[in-house]
Inverse folding.
């Protein structure tokens, strides 16, 4: 009877261990799926801006890189093209462009807010670098 009792105990422990392992594996699996989903959730776009110089680059990248949902942004001053990597679930491309517009820059088909553009240093306004 005692032997049987121990046997039972061991069996129960084994069962518990199995359950714990199952849960652990399940958690690891879920984590893996989550990680994959997160990877796929990013989108990279190139936006044509009206940026003029290094100041513009700092201004634009400074704003976007602290914007929720934006993973990374980089302006190529030469071509005025801005590369943005973002999470569409958190911020839309439209909203990103709107931020550029509000800052005083064109964003593809969207024209810069004239008031904001006026407030930029002269060198940062369109044609400002011709000096
Ligand atoms: Cu500038």
């Amino acid at each position: 009877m005692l032997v049987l009792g121990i046997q039972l105990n061991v069996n129960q422990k084994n069962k518990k261990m199995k359950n714990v392992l199952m849960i652990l594996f399940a958690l690891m699996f879920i984590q893996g799926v989550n990680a994959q989903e997160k990877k796929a959730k990013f989108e990279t776009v190139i936006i044509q801006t009206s940026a003029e110089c290094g100041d513009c680059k700092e201004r634009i990248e400074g704003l976007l890189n602290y914007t929720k949902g934006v993973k990374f942004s980089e302006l190529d001053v030469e071509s005025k093209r801005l590369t943005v990597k973002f999470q569409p679930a958190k911020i839309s491309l439209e909203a990103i462009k709107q931020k550029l517009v509000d800052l005083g820059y064109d964003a593809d088909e969207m024209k810069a807010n004239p008031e904001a553009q006026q407030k930029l240093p002269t060198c940062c306004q369109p044609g400002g670098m011709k000096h």
